[in-house]
Every structure is written in C-alpha cells, then in structure tokens.
Amino acid sequence: MARFLWLTGHDAQEDEPREGHAQEGQAQETQALETPAPEAHAPESHAQDGGVPWAIRMSDGPAHRGRTSRPLAFPERWNPPGGGLPEYRAARKEGTRAFTLWADPHRGQVFAQVVTKSATKGGPAAYEVLGAAGEPLALVTRRPAMKGGLRTRWTVQQTGSRPAVGFKGRPIWWGVWWLSLPLQLLIVIGSILNGGGDPARTPRRTRWRLDRRIVLDFHSGPGAAFELTAVADWWDDRVAASLVALLDSHGGWLGSQWDTAER
Q1: Three-class SS of residue 242?
Q2: Which has the higher per-residue pLDDT, 257 or 77?
Q3: Does pLDDT of 103 surpass 90?
Q4: Cβ 89 vs Cβ 37: under 8 Å
Q5: How many CB atoms within 10 Å of residue 96?
Q6: Is 168 helix (H, G, I), strand (E, B) or coil?
Q7: How far apart are CA 25 and CA 36, in angstroms?
Q8: By the number of CB atoms within 10 A of the CB, which of 15, 94, 160, 171 ranks highest?
Q9: d(CA 237, CA 31)
Q10: Are 137 and 127 in contact (CB under 8 A)?
Q11: Phi, psi (5° rounding) for residue 86?
C-alpha cells in the first residue's frame, strides 16, 4: 500500500492536523528503537522551547479534504559542535546537511539520523541515513544540474536494495520555466526591494524508478506543500521520512528552508 509523507509545522502543545489534514489517533506507529539519542547528536539549540517545531506526517491515502494523517517523525538540524545557526548555514553552503529525526516532539527517542558522507560546494553530495543505533539504512546522493546532466539527479539506495534514480522536474516544465525566467527575475528584484511578489519555484517533481517502475514520487500536495509518495511497500519509513527532510532542505534558490529557521 502506498504511503504519503510531507513536512509541516508542528505545535508541541497540541497535535492538531495541518494543511487540512485530520489527525489519526495519538499513537505514533514508528520503527523507533527504545534507544536515547547519541550524545553527540543532541540538539545544541532550542533549549528553552516546548518541542521540535517541525513534523513529518504520514497518511495511507492521497490528498483530499478530510484525509487522516499521523505524525511520523520530528526533524531537527544539528548545529556544528560549539556553533549555532550561523555556523550551520556556513556549512550548508558547502552542501552539508545534518539532521536528527525524533520519534516524538520532546526528543525522547531517535527515529533516524541524516549525516553528510561527502559534499562539495555546488557539486555532488552524499548523505547517509542511519537508524537510532547508528546502523546504516540508506545512501542518498544528489548531483546538481549542469554537473553531468541538465537536471538535478537524486539517487536513493536503501540497504539491501538496488539504487532508485530520480530527476528533478519534468523536461516540459523546465522549458516553460526557462522561457519565463526574465519575468521571474523582475519579480525577484521587486520582492527584494518591496518585500512582495512570489516568483515561481523551479520545477520540483521527482520520480524515482527501479527497473522502469516508479517506486517514489515527490509531487505537489495540498496548497504549496510537496509530499513524497512511497509507491513501493518495501521502503523503510525511516528512509522515506529522511528523504522528505533532505528534499525540503533543497527547496530552491528563493525562500527559506525548514533547516535554516531560527528554531
């Protein structure tokens, strides 16, 4: 059965549905281990908060009004040792990403972890998805556009499986986007000067194939949100949730991503 995952804001005081999705019970059906977060991976900020402000929700049905969903994981960046958000942003420019996905908003259990295996500024990057005990779950690689191809290439290889390959954006929509680029540049300039305007994002839809079959699909969801459909039932929820966090941290060249927020 297909599963649908997306990133949204989370209020730790009340687990209410976001973006028109209803909550399905209070139990979190996760694969989290009964293992506390490794000390080196504990967050170095947000000490005074009421919980992790982001959630990855999951539903067994496609987007429609009244769809039920439940929180699956709560992603949070790791700041560099001894550093804070400015240092994280500096490392991020080099392609680095570092997240903990918690099983609960109060950081009681680790659900999964994302670490950077290798990265170069403006070039390819490789990210490892790890379990709560540090066991390898998957390797995710990203090759930017114009670095050996016209579109950004994402490869996801779950442990014990062959790699699935996806390309960001459909060719026809890239053509439309490039034709409208002069207008987009004017909107960008206007938004910088006046604080208004909403330039179009670059095409983002990504479909991963294995043996020519679609096994993952990152596509538009409710409103401006994007969601990931795990088409194949063999995907580990921890890998799928980590991929959502990674994809939404590479949202585009305008706007803020969840992992650069103040909290």
Answers
A1: helix
A2: 77
A3: yes
A4: no
A5: 18
A6: strand
A7: 24
A8: 15
A9: 8
A10: no
A11: -60, -40
Q: Tell me the torsion sign for CA atoms 99, 240, 207, 4.
A: negative
**Alpha-carbon gap, residue 188 to 151, rounded angstroms:** 22
Which amino acid, residue 119? A
Q: Are strands 164-168 and 153-158 parallel, antiparallel or unpaired?
A: antiparallel
Query: In the chain, how long is the greatest CA-to-CA distance?
Result: 53
Residue 142 token pair: 């990203």
* Through-space distance between the first and last CA atoms of the chain, rounded to whole angstroms: 35
What mean pLDDT is predicted for residues 203-209? 86
CB contact at 8 A, 21 and 222: yes
Q: Which amino acid is at 247?
A: L
**Could you state, in order of their start, the residue ranges of all structural domains in the chain?**
3-136+233-260, 170-201
The Cα 28–Cα 241 span in angstroms is: 14
Q: What residue type is assigned to position 43 of the chain?
A: P
Q: What is the pLDDT of residues 114-156, one digit of tens each?
A: 999 999 998 999 999 999 999 999 999 999 986 666 789 999 9
CA–CA dist 205, 233 (Å, integer): 20
